[in-house]
UniProtKB/TrEMBL annotation:
The keyword Amino-acid biosynthesis does not apply. Pfam families: GFO_IDH_MocA, GFO_IDH_MocA_C3. InterPro entries: Gfo/Idh/MocA-like_OxRdtase_N, Gfo/Idh/MocA_oxidrdct_glycsds, GFO_IDH_MocA-like_dom, NAD(P)-bd_dom_sf. Residues 50-138 form the Gfo/Idh/MocA-like oxidoreductase N-terminal domain. GO terms for molecular function: nucleotide binding; oxidoreductase activity. This is Gfo/Idh/MocA family oxidoreductase. Coiled coil: none annotated. Residues 150-289 form the GFO/IDH/MocA-like oxidoreductase domain. The keyword Oxidoreductase applies. Keywords: NAD, Oxidoreductase. It comes from Antribacter soli. SUPFAM superfamilies: Glyceraldehyde-3-phosphate dehydrogenase-like, C-terminal domain, NAD(P)-binding Rossmann-fold domains.
Protein backbone atom coordinates (compact mmCIF):
# COMPACT_ATOMS: atom_id res chain seq x y z
CA UNK A 1 0.00 0.00 0.00
CA UNK A 2 1.36 3.46 -0.92
CA UNK A 3 0.78 5.94 1.90
CA UNK A 4 1.85 8.99 -0.07
CA UNK A 5 4.01 10.23 -2.92
CA UNK A 6 6.92 12.65 -2.62
CA UNK A 7 7.56 14.84 -5.66
CA UNK A 8 11.26 15.43 -6.14
CA UNK A 9 12.52 18.23 -8.40
CA UNK A 10 15.85 16.91 -9.69
CA UNK A 11 18.26 19.58 -10.89
CA UNK A 12 21.44 18.66 -12.78
CA UNK A 13 20.18 15.28 -13.99
CA UNK A 14 21.92 15.62 -17.35
CA UNK A 15 25.28 15.57 -15.51
CA UNK A 16 27.36 12.51 -14.68
CA UNK A 17 26.34 12.17 -11.04
CA UNK A 18 22.79 13.46 -11.37
CA UNK A 19 22.00 11.09 -14.22
CA UNK A 20 23.83 7.92 -13.37
CA UNK A 21 23.87 7.69 -9.60
CA UNK A 22 20.80 9.69 -8.61
CA UNK A 23 18.26 9.25 -11.41
CA UNK A 24 19.16 5.89 -12.96
CA UNK A 25 20.63 4.08 -9.95
CA UNK A 26 18.50 5.59 -7.16
CA UNK A 27 15.21 7.38 -7.87
CA UNK A 28 14.07 5.28 -10.85
CA UNK A 29 14.76 1.95 -9.07
CA UNK A 30 12.97 3.30 -5.97
CA UNK A 31 9.98 4.23 -8.16
CA UNK A 32 10.19 0.82 -9.84
CA UNK A 33 10.14 -1.05 -6.52
CA UNK A 34 7.03 0.88 -5.47
CA UNK A 35 8.74 3.38 -3.19
CA UNK A 36 10.38 3.08 0.19
CA UNK A 37 8.97 0.99 2.99
CA UNK A 38 8.26 2.87 6.21
CA UNK A 39 8.47 1.43 9.73
CA UNK A 40 4.65 1.04 9.90
CA UNK A 41 4.66 -1.15 6.79
CA UNK A 42 3.23 1.52 4.46
CA UNK A 43 5.26 2.88 1.57
CA UNK A 44 6.20 6.30 0.26
CA UNK A 45 6.45 6.52 -3.51
CA UNK A 46 8.63 8.99 -5.42
CA UNK A 47 7.74 11.07 -8.45
CA UNK A 48 10.68 12.79 -10.13
CA UNK A 49 10.38 16.15 -11.89
CA UNK A 50 13.42 16.57 -14.13
CA UNK A 51 14.95 20.05 -14.21
CA UNK A 52 17.61 21.19 -16.67
CA UNK A 53 18.76 24.11 -18.81
CA UNK A 54 18.53 22.43 -22.20
CA UNK A 55 14.93 21.74 -23.19
CA UNK A 56 15.75 19.15 -25.85
CA UNK A 57 18.01 17.18 -23.55
CA UNK A 58 15.66 17.21 -20.59
CA UNK A 59 12.60 16.30 -22.67
CA UNK A 60 14.54 13.45 -24.27
CA UNK A 61 15.69 12.22 -20.86
CA UNK A 62 12.15 12.33 -19.47
CA UNK A 63 10.86 10.39 -22.47
CA UNK A 64 13.60 7.80 -22.31
CA UNK A 65 12.90 7.04 -18.65
CA UNK A 66 9.15 7.44 -18.72
CA UNK A 67 9.15 10.49 -16.46
CA UNK A 68 5.98 12.50 -16.87
CA UNK A 69 7.12 15.88 -15.53
CA UNK A 70 10.08 18.02 -16.58
CA UNK A 71 10.91 21.71 -16.79
CA UNK A 72 13.66 24.12 -17.77
CA UNK A 73 12.54 26.58 -15.10
CA UNK A 74 14.33 25.81 -11.84
CA UNK A 75 12.75 28.73 -9.98
CA UNK A 76 9.27 27.59 -10.96
CA UNK A 77 10.05 24.04 -9.80
CA UNK A 78 11.24 25.39 -6.46
CA UNK A 79 8.11 27.55 -6.11
CA UNK A 80 5.78 24.70 -7.15
CA UNK A 81 3.59 23.81 -4.15
CA UNK A 82 3.32 20.20 -5.23
CA UNK A 83 7.11 19.71 -5.04
CA UNK A 84 8.24 18.28 -1.68
CA UNK A 85 11.98 17.84 -2.19
CA UNK A 86 14.52 19.80 -4.25
CA UNK A 87 17.56 17.79 -5.26
CA UNK A 88 20.70 19.40 -6.67
CA UNK A 89 23.54 17.74 -8.58
CA UNK A 90 24.35 20.69 -10.77
CA UNK A 91 27.82 22.18 -10.84
CA UNK A 92 29.20 23.15 -7.45
CA UNK A 93 29.35 26.92 -7.99
CA UNK A 94 25.56 27.13 -8.50
CA UNK A 95 24.62 25.02 -5.49
CA UNK A 96 24.37 27.40 -2.52
CA UNK A 97 21.96 29.69 -4.36
CA UNK A 98 19.67 26.81 -5.37
CA UNK A 99 19.63 25.28 -1.89
CA UNK A 100 18.98 28.66 -0.28
CA UNK A 101 16.01 29.34 -2.54
CA UNK A 102 14.64 25.85 -1.97
CA UNK A 103 14.82 25.98 1.82
CA UNK A 104 13.32 29.49 1.84
CA UNK A 105 10.43 28.03 -0.17
CA UNK A 106 9.98 25.41 2.56
CA UNK A 107 11.31 22.49 0.50
CA UNK A 108 13.25 19.60 1.92
CA UNK A 109 16.59 19.41 0.18
CA UNK A 110 18.89 16.63 -0.88
CA UNK A 111 22.17 17.56 -2.49
CA UNK A 112 25.46 16.49 -3.89
CA UNK A 113 28.59 17.66 -2.14
CA UNK A 114 30.21 20.10 -1.64
CA UNK A 115 27.28 22.20 -0.44
CA UNK A 116 29.09 25.47 -1.10
CA UNK A 117 32.32 26.95 -2.35
CA UNK A 118 33.14 28.75 0.90
CA UNK A 119 32.79 27.80 4.54
CA UNK A 120 30.73 30.89 5.25
CA UNK A 121 28.17 29.90 2.59
CA UNK A 122 28.10 26.32 3.90
CA UNK A 123 27.45 27.55 7.47
CA UNK A 124 24.77 29.96 6.22
CA UNK A 125 23.02 26.99 4.57
CA UNK A 126 23.18 24.95 7.80
CA UNK A 127 21.76 27.91 9.74
CA UNK A 128 18.97 28.37 7.22
CA UNK A 129 18.04 24.73 7.66
CA UNK A 130 17.74 25.26 11.42
CA UNK A 131 15.55 28.31 10.83
CA UNK A 132 13.27 26.63 8.31
CA UNK A 133 13.16 23.20 9.98
CA UNK A 134 13.21 21.35 6.65
CA UNK A 135 14.95 17.98 6.34
CA UNK A 136 18.30 18.35 4.57
CA UNK A 137 20.50 15.53 3.33
CA UNK A 138 23.93 15.72 1.78
CA UNK A 139 25.40 12.83 -0.21
CA UNK A 140 27.85 10.88 2.01
CA UNK A 141 28.01 8.00 -0.45
CA UNK A 142 31.40 6.60 0.53
CA UNK A 143 30.09 5.54 3.95
CA UNK A 144 27.50 3.33 2.24
CA UNK A 145 30.08 1.50 0.12
CA UNK A 146 30.34 -2.19 0.98
CA UNK A 147 34.09 -1.87 1.63
CA UNK A 148 33.63 0.94 4.13
CA UNK A 149 30.58 -0.67 5.74
CA UNK A 150 32.80 -3.69 6.48
CA UNK A 151 35.61 -1.46 7.74
CA UNK A 152 33.22 0.36 10.07
CA UNK A 153 31.97 -3.00 11.36
CA UNK A 154 35.55 -3.98 12.26
CA UNK A 155 35.89 -0.72 14.21
CA UNK A 156 32.59 -1.37 16.03
CA UNK A 157 33.66 -4.90 16.92
CA UNK A 158 36.91 -3.65 18.43
CA UNK A 159 38.90 -5.67 15.89
CA UNK A 160 41.75 -3.14 15.69
CA UNK A 161 42.51 -2.74 19.40
CA UNK A 162 43.85 0.81 19.65
CA UNK A 163 43.69 2.37 16.21
CA UNK A 164 46.97 3.97 15.23
CA UNK A 165 46.69 5.22 11.67
CA UNK A 166 44.81 5.29 8.39
CA UNK A 167 46.32 5.52 4.94
CA UNK A 168 44.18 6.30 1.93
CA UNK A 169 45.08 6.19 -1.72
CA UNK A 170 42.60 7.65 -4.18
CA UNK A 171 42.70 8.53 -7.85
CA UNK A 172 43.55 7.46 -11.35
CA UNK A 173 44.84 8.97 -14.56
CA UNK A 174 42.41 11.50 -16.03
CA UNK A 175 43.36 11.99 -19.65
CA UNK A 176 44.39 15.47 -20.68
CA UNK A 177 41.86 15.49 -23.51
CA UNK A 178 44.23 15.98 -26.46
CA UNK A 179 44.68 12.49 -27.84
CA UNK A 180 42.01 10.80 -25.73
CA UNK A 181 38.93 12.56 -24.34
CA UNK A 182 39.08 13.30 -20.60
CA UNK A 183 36.79 11.08 -18.54
CA UNK A 184 35.78 13.92 -16.20
CA UNK A 185 34.18 17.32 -16.98
CA UNK A 186 36.58 20.16 -17.78
CA UNK A 187 35.14 22.50 -15.12
CA UNK A 188 36.66 20.13 -12.55
CA UNK A 189 40.09 21.47 -13.58
CA UNK A 190 39.19 25.19 -13.51
CA UNK A 191 39.28 26.92 -10.14
CA UNK A 192 37.08 29.77 -11.41
CA UNK A 193 34.33 27.20 -12.17
CA UNK A 194 34.44 25.56 -8.73
CA UNK A 195 36.85 22.76 -9.70
CA UNK A 196 39.82 21.32 -7.81
CA UNK A 197 40.80 18.06 -6.15
CA UNK A 198 40.86 19.50 -2.63
CA UNK A 199 37.41 21.12 -2.93
CA UNK A 200 36.07 17.98 -4.55
CA UNK A 201 37.52 15.30 -2.28
CA UNK A 202 38.34 16.72 1.17
CA UNK A 203 34.61 17.01 1.90
CA UNK A 204 34.39 13.24 1.26
CA UNK A 205 37.47 12.54 3.37
CA UNK A 206 36.06 14.54 6.26
CA UNK A 207 32.94 12.39 6.61
CA UNK A 208 34.88 9.20 5.88
CA UNK A 209 37.35 10.02 8.67
CA UNK A 210 34.50 11.05 11.01
CA UNK A 211 32.45 8.00 10.10
CA UNK A 212 35.26 5.49 10.55
CA UNK A 213 37.60 7.04 13.12
CA UNK A 214 36.54 10.31 14.75
CA UNK A 215 36.84 14.11 14.62
CA UNK A 216 39.48 15.71 12.42
CA UNK A 217 41.54 18.12 14.56
CA UNK A 218 44.29 19.34 12.22
CA UNK A 219 45.18 19.30 8.55
CA UNK A 220 48.47 19.57 6.72
CA UNK A 221 48.21 19.50 2.95
CA UNK A 222 50.20 20.00 -0.18
CA UNK A 223 48.01 20.68 -3.17
CA UNK A 224 49.42 20.70 -6.69
CA UNK A 225 48.46 21.23 -10.30
CA UNK A 226 50.52 18.49 -11.92
CA UNK A 227 49.00 18.91 -15.40
CA UNK A 228 48.72 22.63 -16.21
CA UNK A 229 47.18 22.31 -19.69
CA UNK A 230 44.13 20.26 -20.65
CA UNK A 231 41.62 20.07 -23.52
CA UNK A 232 37.88 20.54 -22.91
CA UNK A 233 34.75 18.78 -24.19
CA UNK A 234 35.00 20.75 -27.47
CA UNK A 235 38.66 19.81 -27.92
CA UNK A 236 39.77 23.34 -27.01
CA UNK A 237 42.98 23.77 -25.05
CA UNK A 238 42.58 25.47 -21.65
CA UNK A 239 44.67 26.31 -18.62
CA UNK A 240 44.02 23.95 -15.69
CA UNK A 241 43.87 26.52 -12.91
CA UNK A 242 42.67 24.13 -10.17
CA UNK A 243 44.71 21.62 -8.17
CA UNK A 244 44.60 18.10 -9.59
CA UNK A 245 46.27 16.41 -6.61
CA UNK A 246 46.12 16.86 -2.85
CA UNK A 247 48.40 15.12 -0.36
CA UNK A 248 46.92 15.46 3.12
CA UNK A 249 47.79 14.50 6.69
CA UNK A 250 45.06 14.70 9.31
CA UNK A 251 45.21 14.39 13.12
CA UNK A 252 42.10 12.64 14.38
CA UNK A 253 40.68 12.05 17.86
CA UNK A 254 38.53 8.95 18.31
CA UNK A 255 35.37 9.11 20.46
CA UNK A 256 37.45 7.38 23.19
CA UNK A 257 40.03 10.19 23.03
CA UNK A 258 42.81 8.28 21.25
CA UNK A 259 44.89 10.10 18.65
CA UNK A 260 44.99 8.62 15.12
CA UNK A 261 47.11 9.86 12.22
CA UNK A 262 45.47 9.70 8.80
CA UNK A 263 47.09 10.44 5.49
CA UNK A 264 45.29 10.44 2.18
CA UNK A 265 46.73 10.94 -1.28
CA UNK A 266 44.23 12.10 -3.90
CA UNK A 267 45.35 12.50 -7.48
CA UNK A 268 44.05 12.72 -11.04
CA UNK A 269 47.61 12.23 -12.23
CA UNK A 270 48.39 8.79 -10.88
CA UNK A 271 48.34 5.39 -12.55
CA UNK A 272 46.57 2.70 -10.56
CA UNK A 273 48.60 -0.12 -8.99
CA UNK A 274 45.95 -1.09 -6.49
CA UNK A 275 42.94 -3.39 -6.45
CA UNK A 276 40.42 -0.53 -6.37
CA UNK A 277 40.22 3.17 -7.26
CA UNK A 278 40.17 4.08 -3.58
CA UNK A 279 41.72 2.09 -0.76
CA UNK A 280 42.03 2.78 2.96
CA UNK A 281 44.35 0.85 5.27
CA UNK A 282 43.71 1.04 9.00
CA UNK A 283 46.39 -0.23 11.37
CA UNK A 284 45.72 -0.98 15.02
CA UNK A 285 47.51 -2.73 17.85
CA UNK A 286 45.42 -5.92 17.42
CA UNK A 287 44.86 -5.96 13.70
CA UNK A 288 44.82 -4.16 10.37
CA UNK A 289 42.41 -3.95 7.46
CA UNK A 290 42.41 -2.64 3.90
CA UNK A 291 39.09 -1.55 2.44
CA UNK A 292 38.26 -0.55 -1.11
CA UNK A 293 34.92 0.34 -2.66
CA UNK A 294 33.65 -3.20 -2.32
CA UNK A 295 36.24 -5.47 -0.79
CA UNK A 296 37.78 -5.46 2.66
CA UNK A 297 40.57 -7.73 3.89
CA UNK A 298 41.92 -7.98 7.42
CA UNK A 299 44.89 -9.40 9.29
CA UNK A 300 44.96 -10.15 13.01
CA UNK A 301 47.89 -9.68 15.34
CA UNK A 302 48.22 -13.48 15.69
CA UNK A 303 48.48 -13.82 11.89
CA UNK A 304 50.93 -11.00 11.36
CA UNK A 305 54.13 -12.15 9.64
CA UNK A 306 57.52 -11.09 10.99
CA UNK A 307 59.50 -9.76 8.05
CA UNK A 308 63.19 -9.04 8.44
CA UNK A 309 64.76 -6.39 6.24
CA UNK A 310 67.31 -7.92 3.90
CA UNK A 311 67.81 -6.21 0.56
CA UNK A 312 70.15 -8.99 -0.59
CA UNK A 313 67.35 -11.58 -0.75
CA UNK A 314 64.19 -11.67 -2.84
CA UNK A 315 60.98 -11.14 -0.88
CA UNK A 316 60.25 -14.23 1.22
CA UNK A 317 56.63 -13.68 2.24
CA UNK A 318 53.51 -13.67 0.02
CA UNK A 319 52.26 -10.58 1.88
CA UNK A 320 49.01 -10.09 -0.04
CA UNK A 321 47.98 -13.71 0.54
CA UNK A 322 48.22 -13.31 4.32
CA UNK A 323 44.96 -11.32 4.59
CA UNK A 324 41.46 -12.75 5.07
CA UNK A 325 38.48 -11.33 3.24
CA UNK A 326 35.81 -9.75 5.47
CA UNK A 327 32.37 -11.03 4.37
CA UNK A 328 29.46 -8.66 3.70
CA UNK A 329 26.98 -10.99 5.46
CA UNK A 330 24.19 -8.99 3.82
CA UNK A 331 23.06 -7.74 0.43
CA UNK A 332 24.45 -4.25 0.15
CA UNK A 333 22.50 -2.22 -2.42
CA UNK A 334 23.88 0.78 -4.33
CA UNK A 335 25.11 3.29 -1.73
CA UNK A 336 23.48 6.32 -3.35
CA UNK A 337 20.12 4.53 -3.37
CA UNK A 338 20.47 3.39 0.24
CA UNK A 339 21.12 6.95 1.40
CA UNK A 340 18.18 8.27 -0.67
CA UNK A 341 15.91 5.71 1.01
CA UNK A 342 17.12 6.70 4.46
CA UNK A 343 16.67 10.39 3.62
CA UNK A 344 13.12 9.84 2.31
CA UNK A 345 12.17 8.01 5.53
CA UNK A 346 13.51 11.00 7.47
CA UNK A 347 11.44 13.40 5.33
CA UNK A 348 8.27 11.44 6.03
CA UNK A 349 9.09 11.22 9.74
CA UNK A 350 9.83 14.98 9.80
CA UNK A 351 13.22 14.47 11.44
CA UNK A 352 16.75 15.58 10.52
CA UNK A 353 18.89 13.36 8.30
CA UNK A 354 22.10 12.19 10.01
CA UNK A 355 24.31 13.44 7.16
CA UNK A 356 23.20 17.04 7.12
CA UNK A 357 24.38 20.50 6.17
CA UNK A 358 26.48 20.84 9.33
CA UNK A 359 28.46 17.70 8.51
CA UNK A 360 28.76 19.07 4.96
CA UNK A 361 30.01 22.41 6.31
CA UNK A 362 32.78 20.56 8.16
CA UNK A 363 33.71 19.01 4.81
CA UNK A 364 33.85 22.41 3.12
CA UNK A 365 35.89 23.67 6.08
CA UNK A 366 38.43 20.86 5.69
CA UNK A 367 38.81 21.65 1.99
CA UNK A 368 39.25 25.34 2.68
CA UNK A 369 41.81 24.68 5.42
CA UNK A 370 43.59 22.13 3.21
CA UNK A 371 44.08 24.75 0.51
CA UNK A 372 45.19 27.30 3.11
CA UNK A 373 47.61 24.82 4.68
CA UNK A 374 49.21 24.23 1.32
CA UNK A 375 49.39 27.93 0.44
CA UNK A 376 50.95 28.81 3.80
CA UNK A 377 53.07 25.67 4.15
CA UNK A 378 51.88 24.85 7.68
CA UNK A 379 49.65 22.61 9.77
CA UNK A 380 46.29 24.15 10.65
CA UNK A 381 43.86 23.42 13.48
CA UNK A 382 40.29 22.58 12.45
CA UNK A 383 38.03 24.64 14.75
CA UNK A 384 34.66 23.24 15.79
CA UNK A 385 31.73 24.78 13.91
CA UNK A 386 28.78 25.86 16.00
CA UNK A 387 25.60 27.18 14.46
N1 LIG B 1 29.36 12.06 -4.58
C1 LIG B 1 30.33 11.89 -5.46
O1 LIG B 1 31.07 10.92 -5.40
C2 LIG B 1 30.54 12.90 -6.56
C3 LIG B 1 31.34 12.56 -7.65
C4 LIG B 1 31.49 13.49 -8.67
C5 LIG B 1 30.87 14.72 -8.60
N2 LIG B 1 30.11 15.03 -7.50
C6 LIG B 1 29.46 16.34 -7.38
O2 LIG B 1 28.32 16.34 -8.23
C7 LIG B 1 28.17 17.62 -8.85
C8 LIG B 1 28.05 17.45 -10.36
O3 LIG B 1 29.26 16.87 -10.84
P1 LIG B 1 29.29 16.06 -12.22
O4 LIG B 1 30.60 15.39 -12.24
O5 LIG B 1 28.05 15.28 -12.38
O6 LIG B 1 29.32 17.28 -13.25
P2 LIG B 1 28.72 17.37 -14.71
O7 LIG B 1 29.47 18.47 -15.37
O8 LIG B 1 28.68 16.04 -15.37
O9 LIG B 1 27.21 17.83 -14.46
C9 LIG B 1 26.88 19.14 -14.13
C10 LIG B 1 25.40 19.37 -14.27
O10 LIG B 1 25.15 20.75 -14.01
C11 LIG B 1 24.43 21.31 -15.09
N3 LIG B 1 24.76 22.73 -15.22
C12 LIG B 1 23.92 23.73 -14.87
N4 LIG B 1 24.47 24.91 -15.14
C13 LIG B 1 25.67 24.67 -15.66
C14 LIG B 1 26.70 25.52 -16.15
N5 LIG B 1 26.58 26.85 -16.12
N6 LIG B 1 27.81 24.93 -16.63
C15 LIG B 1 27.95 23.57 -16.63
N7 LIG B 1 26.99 22.74 -16.17
C16 LIG B 1 25.86 23.28 -15.70
C17 LIG B 1 24.83 20.48 -16.29
O11 LIG B 1 23.88 20.58 -17.31
C18 LIG B 1 24.85 19.09 -15.68
O12 LIG B 1 23.55 18.58 -15.55
C19 LIG B 1 29.36 18.47 -8.38
O13 LIG B 1 28.96 19.34 -7.36
C20 LIG B 1 30.34 17.47 -7.85
O14 LIG B 1 31.10 17.99 -6.77
C21 LIG B 1 29.93 14.13 -6.51
Amino acid sequence: MTARTLRIAMNGVTGRMGYRQHLVRSILPIREQGGVELPDGTRVQVEPVLVGRNEDKIRELAKKHDVEHWTTDLDAAIADDSVDVVFDASMTSLRAETLTKAMRAGKHIYTEKPTAETLQEAIDLARLREETGVTAGVVHDKLYLPGLVKLRRLVDEGFFGRILSLRGEFGYWVFEGDTQAAQRPSWNYRKEDGGGMTTDMFCHWNYVLEGILGQVRTVTATTVTHIPTRWDEAGKQYEATADDAAYGIFDITTPGGDPVVAQINSSWAVRVYRDELVEFQVDGTHGSAVAGLRKCVAQQRAHTPKPVWNPDLPVTEPFREQWLEVPANADLDNGFKLQWEEFLRDVVAGRPHRFDLLSAARGVQLAELGLQSSAEGRRLAVPEITL
